[in-house]
Amino acid sequence: MDLKGKAALVTGGASGIGEATVRRLAAAGAVVGVADRDVEKARALADEVGGLALPGDVAQPDAMAMAVDIAEDAFGRLNIVFLNAGITGGQSGIENLDLAGYRRIMGVNVDHVVFGLTAAVPALRRAGGGNIIATASLAGLTGMPGDALYTATKHAVVGYVRAAGPMLAGDNITVNAVCPGFADTPLIAGAKDRFEGFPLLRADDVADAVEAILDRGEPGECWYVQPGREPAPYGFRGVPGPKGSQPPPDVSWADH
Ligand SMILES: NC(=O)c1ccc[n+]([C@@H]2O[C@H](COP(=O)([O-])OP(=O)(O)OC[C@H]3O[C@@H](n4cnc5c(N)ncnc54)[C@H](O)[C@@H]3O)[C@@H](O)[C@H]2O)c1
Predict the structure, then answer these.
(1) Contact, 127 vs 79, CB < 8 A?
(2) For residue 38, is it within any domain?
(3) Is residue 36 lining ligand 1, measured as CB closer than 6 Å?
(4) Is residue 200 part of a domain?
(5) Which tens digits make up the pLDDT trace of 215-231?
(6) What is the pLDDT of residues 233-250, one digit of tens each?
(7) Which domain holds residue 154?
(8) For a disulfide at 199, which of 4, 21, 118, 227, Cβ 3.0-4.6 Å?
């Protein structure tokens, strides 16, 4: 991958999958903004790769707009945005719902992707196009019993990407999701004993998938990543339409 002359922004860039991807993008020649609420780690990594630390809580409405503005100002352009920060639910999401926890996971896993994409699009248009990749999960493609809230947020990311992809393709902006299975990162460290004997992805495997998506992702595709398998776009099954009908109408809001 040759990214010389390109500028990237990675959220949740200070740890795990984000960190591996920051290193990968920087090694390919890109300048990288590391957005993370862990200020110390973001700064240390940014210093190491010659990038820029962008501290803050990406779940806040103006944080993503600020991160995009600062990165674009500093780098003179923005070509790649990896919306990767995420947290787990920490509760079943079925009984005794902890409202603050519900709002928190929706904020980080869903709001941040929506705020991040809407902030990134004008900057990418100014650059003549580019790539937006959101980290969903295999839990965005199937139910993950045990963490219903996490599953709900990742399905939301998959749905958003699938709809936004075709809408932005005409601007030369390719929007994709990466959907990893369980990966050995601090996110699952608290439950590590439960994965005894189960093959886990390395953060680097997911960075490989991000690289493949940058190389050949088509608008709206959601790529699964599983140990021992080549990452590839997930093949969604079509839904039944009304019997005997024509293709569905275009309900784009831009027409209204
Ligand atoms: N590890 C897995 O098994 C796995 C599997 C599938 C998908 N994912 C997804 O991959 C992404 C990265 O997770 P990871 O496994 O690398 O976890 P991680 O905990 O190692 O990294 C997540 C990073 O996001 C940052 N972050 C969290 N909330 C933030 C906020 N509000 N503002 C700014 N930064 C914030 C954290 O500080 C951390 O540096 C997440 O979206 C996660 O849901 C992880």
Answers:
(1) yes
(2) yes
(3) yes
(4) yes
(5) 999 999 999 999 999 99
(6) 999 998 988 888 788 888
(7) 7-255
(8) 227
Select which of 102, 150, 160, 224 is catalytic. 150
CATH number assigned to the domain comprising residue 32 = 3.40.50.720
Ligand 1 near 183 CB (within 6 A): yes
Cα(188) to ligand 1 centroid in Å equals 10
Cα(89)–Cα(162) distance, integer angstroms: 23
248 inside domain:
yes
Contacts of 115 (CB under 8 A, 6+ apart): 58, 61, 63, 64, 65
Q: How many domains does the chain have?
A: 1
Report residue 129 as tokens. 């196009």
Q: Please choose, from the candidates 37, 34, 19, 9, the residue with its C-alpha nearest in 3D space to the C-alpha of residue 186.
A: 19
pLDDT at 255: 56
Long-range residue pairs from 231-235, CB within 8 A, at least 24 positions apart, any chain: 231/178, 234/141, 234/179
Residue 1 located in a structural domain: no
